[in-house]
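S., here's the first fold you wanted:
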Amino acid sequence: MAARAQLEQLLKARKLDITLVDARPASETVADAADLAVTGVPAIDAALGGGLRRGHLSEIVGGRSSGRTTAVCRALSAAAARGELVALIDTCDRFDPASAAAFGLDLTRLLWIRDTGDATRALKAMNLVLQAGGFGLVVLDLADVALPVVRALPFTTWFRLARVIEGSQTVALLVAADHVARGSGGATIDLARADMTARVAQSEAVPGLTPACWRGRSDRSRLLQGLEIRPRVVGARS
């Protein structure tokens, strides 16, 4: 154990500890409350043990109707409510400010960077925002970028992003259709696709349960209301 501790100390001194994977039991690696950022989604926060780890790269993955947009809006809203600045790199220009404001997001605390589908350019924007610092949560939305395009990005890209925020109070969050990457202390939040037939039937059978339905005045603002988010969290240290 002494040799391991000495090796970890040397790696941290040379900024190489981002590659470490801790083999200790989860009970010994629980982050302090100050190192966690509550997402505002009870199911996700419970599965994460309190929230996303600061100073690490995490990801939310899932198909359409799985709750990705809802989870991101709630996470941005929760961070802004704590007085933090937040940023969203909107790769395919799908974000709807009105819908986000309805979730409680203070738009005056949001930096919204819009693109037209260029994943490489969006990654450069993400890197610049993380290097600038001062943000509690920075989200890169790649959900509508074709998976072959995302997987063609150099794998070292994610290591560089993780290194930029190492030891900071910033949470970097990727949003994609499938697993892309996460940092050594980050997590993958895998959202199950909503079974709409069962959800509608349930909403009709249970009094007071919000019916699941699409709402919004345009394609940009179409959000699935009454959705029950069902996350499966895979931690890098599990």
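And the second, which I think is the more interesting of the pair:
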Amino acid sequence: MHHFVVDHWSQSDSPLHRRDARAKLFVLVATLLAVATAPAQFQWTGVGLAAPILAGFLIARIPLGAALLRGLVVLPFTATFALISYVGGDVERAAALLWKSYLSGLAVLLAVSTTPFPHFLRAAEWWGTPSFLVTVIQFVYRYLFVISEQVQHMRMAAACRGSGGRGWLFQRDHVAAAAGAVSVLFSRSMARAEGIHRAMIARGFRGHILTLDSPRFGWLDVVFAVAAAGGLIALRIVLGRVS
């Protein structure tokens, strides 16, 4: 099984990794609110709100350069609205859409990079997220790895058979081969899904994913949640007045 980089980061050990997922989710919501309600002018507000997020990556010992690059994945979703604002003459709003979405993406990335995904979902359920939604997200996340593994096996098998992928992209033979590969991937994924479903039922699955460990919400987690969330909100208020 080839894990995503973020999933690999979440298995590390640091002061942030050791904090309870419920506390980190609470701080994440406070961070997103602080960024969303910040004034449109970047200036000191943007720099000040970015500082604790970047400090979090350093404390968690996550490669800062790799994290900053992965945070850019959110920009294509907001670039369209930023472009519309820019064309409409509202340059300040366009810039705000970009930097706010980027900081929000970095905050979410920091949270999931320091928390195993099952723990993160369990924390969301603890905070009141519907169990059905949490279960669906959990299955989608797990089956992404299943499909990714199937794709890698098929690519390796194609390479062993001498398929180099050369030629025109829309050449008829290549299109037919790609269509066949997609159909094979779909059938194999369905077969794996049915096998996993039968195994889960045999193990007593009743619509709720259980985990072996039961994390405790200790006093350090309370201090972290209150101090981090309160500090971010206070920083947002102070920087908002300065801007």
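Why I say that: The first helix runs from residue 5 to 9. The radius of gyration is 22 Å.

Talk tomorrow,
H.
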